[in-house]
Amino acid sequence: MIARRFAALAAVPLAFGAGSIAMHAWLARAPRSIANDLAQPLAVVTAWHGYGSVAFAILAATVTVATAGLVAAVARFAAGAQAGDGRAILAFAALALAAAGSWPVVFSSDVYAYAAYGAQALAGVDPYAPVPAALHGPFIEAARYQWTGPFPPCIYGPLFVALAREGVAVLAPAGVGATLAGFRLAASAAFLAGIVMLDVALAGRPPPLRFAAVCAYGLNPIALWTVAEGHNDAFLMLAVLAGAALAARGERVAGALIVALSPLLKAPGLLLAVMAGLDAACFRRPGRRATVTSLGLGTLVAAALVLPPLRPALAALGAHGRYAPSVSAQGLLGPVAALVLAAAAALFAGACLWRRRRAGFGWAGVAVLLALPNPYPWYAPWLLPLALAAGAEPAGIALWAATISSVARYLPDAAGDLLPGAARLSALVAATPLLWALAFAPASIRKKVVAQP
Hints:
Elements: H1 2-9, H2 11-27, H3 35-38, E1 43-44, H4 49-77, H5 85-101, E2 105-106, H6 110-122, H7 138-147, H8 158-171, H9 176-201, H10 207-218, H11 221-229, H12 233-248, H13 252-261, H14 269-282, H15 288-320, H16 329-333, H17 335-354, H18 359-371, H19 380-390, H20 394-405, H21 410-415, H22 420-440, H23 442-450
Parallel strand pairs: 1-2
Helix pairs in contact: 1-4, 2-4, 2-5, 4-10, 5-9, 5-10, 5-11, 6-7, 6-8, 6-9, 8-9, 9-10, 9-11, 9-12, 12-13, 13-14, 13-15, 14-15, 17-18, 18-19, 18-20, 19-20, 20-22
């Protein structure tokens, strides 16, 4: 039984390995029009038109097969889980990251920006301000190529900028390609460490629940792919899950402070800090007063350290940014309708949490996705804890499924301009789990929450 359970989990790394083979084969037929893109240190599928659409289809098929294998394995074998299964899940996650890292292309240029921000900070140039036209260098030019001109100012916390600066300082002599690979390897290592922290945080839970939760996080195909691309959400989640592990070991104040300070890496840490405070307060956790106080104080400290340097970036975003929903509920229904639904989901979340129903965490995540004009796939790692907290409730299932369907957001960037029908179909794919939750869950909520005395 143990061997069969773990063999079933191998579907995830095997799917990424097969996808890598398919992508290498497809790249061998690359047209000359993308020769300059392929000559970059890390090839990013951007506006490759029909050729890029097929590349996206390979990724989408890979994610679909990996998801089907993961769901089947958890459904069949979770009941026989044992306490030490986290080590096997970690091993399969490492294999999946290695397989994903062997792909010859990625679908996001963000890791180029990370290296450029590190290079700016190393040179004493503010990465939160628009990059000066007179500033040059290999990392700056590589990022400019990806954005066809000025790349966006940094919107991450000062702790991540410091990590990027040190990464560039160490790896720059090896070249841009090696530096980008180093960022991607560091993200993978952080994600794997986060899986260990999650397993520790769930140590007191029944083995079947623990097995399912660690699989749902650590073997989520979209989380694995975006981490392999190098997205810094992996560092954020390592901090948050380390805080959860400390809290589970009785170090509640230290754990709460780590979670509260996580926005020093990336802003979504604030959402997770708020959710941690609601968990402690609404579910009357031991030491909840100290936990909530620590979260509040830590959040104030994080805000004081993050907001001042972010002002130039926020000013630039306000001056030059545009509101353009794409491949989302807002892109499908329009911003007003989607925001109304987001408000309804937020009300569901509040009602559930008030009644101490864990479905509220799932509804909070659904509300966030409905409110975002562009929910990118790399948001999955910090949405997954909300899905896991909601468990088998419809909102939790829908939120987990939405992390998978977010793969559709890669299509418009991979292909370039999409026909209106293709754009709406992509938006429908991305939004379907959220619409499913809204369509079928209210009756369940009324029964379990509103009707409860």
